[in-house]
Specification:
four-stranded mixed β-sheet; mainly alpha; BTB domain-containing protein; SKP1/BTB/POZ_sf; BTB/POZ_dom; 314 residues
Length: 314
């Protein structure tokens, strides 16, 4: 048995081997959930005494996370350490369950500052798995970090493939918002792609070298661009256009693919000006620049202070 408070009147029984003696007053001040549980209206709060502490089983809560939290609540900061990402996720789960996030004070700032920036690998794709990403979103949601929340949800919108292993703790509105925005970005990118396909599929001549070449050469130029588009789109999996929710397709990868278009026009006769790769790339970049992550401040019913990490120095 570990005495977090030597005069404690509550024993938290966590898992199979962890027992923590704590103060009911501290728990009640820090957590509305514990305040209700330890009120005289419930069995746990009807006979509080330091000589015979009330036992509260918490079999489903992670011991390390609960121990860390109660150490903070009892001002035992010398017993608190900078935790791993997995431990931080567990702390967020417990903090959300018992409405304890605000009571963790400066420690949530410290932990959030320690989460590494979103890693991007050599192919331009995020280097972390979708499950870890969704857990980071949850952590930033619980600890009310609007900037970090917006940043990581933006990455999820751009790089999500529609079949992520989303953690169950993530609020439905967040998962639904990411999914909706992801589909919207993909539709926008595919509309850009389809715009050029339809443009070159029309009978109007698009060759920029005309009238310096014959009509046949101009038509051949347009056909070469159209063929390049259809072949490239087929390789990207967007010809024919797929239907929602676009499983296995991410906006980030599609954008990179569209920007990699090669137009097989006749360069020897000056048709290099007829390629449309740069035009597509410009519109694709603009589409991704317009992507915004979800806004934590807009959460209906949100309470508590929003973190401002810009004032902290480490």
């Amino acid at each position: 048995m570990t005495y977090i408070d030597t005069n404690g009147d509550v024993v938290l029984l966590i898992g199979e081997a962890t027992s923590l003696v704590v103060s009911s007053k501290v728990l009640s001040v820090a957590s509305p959930v514990f305040a209700a549980m330890l009120s005289p209206h419930f069995r746990e709060g009807s006979s509080l005494s330091s000589t015979c502490p009330t036992q509260i089983p918490l079999p489903d809560d992670p011991p390390v996370a609960v121990t860390t939290i109660v150490n903070i609540l009892h001002f035992r900061n010398d017993s608190v350490w900078v935790c791993t990402f997995e431990e931080l996720f567990d702390i967020a789960l417990v903090a959300d369950k018992y409405d304890l996030a605000l009571a963790l004070g400066p420690w949530r700032h410290v932990w959030l500052m320690r989460i590494p920036d979103y890693i991007v690998d050599v192919d331009g794709c995020p280097g972390q798995d979708s499950n870890r990403e969704s857990r980071e979103i949850f952590i930033r949601y619980v600890f009310k970090d609007p900037d970090g929340f917006e940043k990581v949800t933006k990455q999820a919108i751009i790089w999500g493939e529609g079949a992520e292993d989303v953690c169950e703790a993530l609020p439905d509105w967040v998962a639904a918002g990411i999914s909706k925005c992801r589909e919207s970005v993909l539709r926008h990118l595919m509309s850009i792609a389809d715009h050029y396909r339809l443009q070159y599929q029309s009978p109007r001549v698009k060759c920029r070298v005309r009238p310096h070449v014959s009509g046949a050469q101009a038509m051949a130029c347009g056909a070469a661009v159209l063929g390049s588009l259809i072949r490239h789109y087929s390789e990207l999996g967007i010809f024919p256009m797929p239907g929602r929710p676009y499983p296995g397709l991410s906006a980030g990868k599609l954008a990179a693919g569209l920007k990699g278009l090669r137009c097989f026009v006749d360069l020897d006769t000056g048709h290099s000006v007829c390629t449309i790769s740069a035009r597509i790339a410009k519109r694709v970049d603009a589409a991704l620049d317009d992507v915004k992550g979800l806004e934590l401040a807009d959460l209906s019913g949100a309470s508590g202070a929003i973190l401002d990490l810009t004032e902290l120095e480490y």
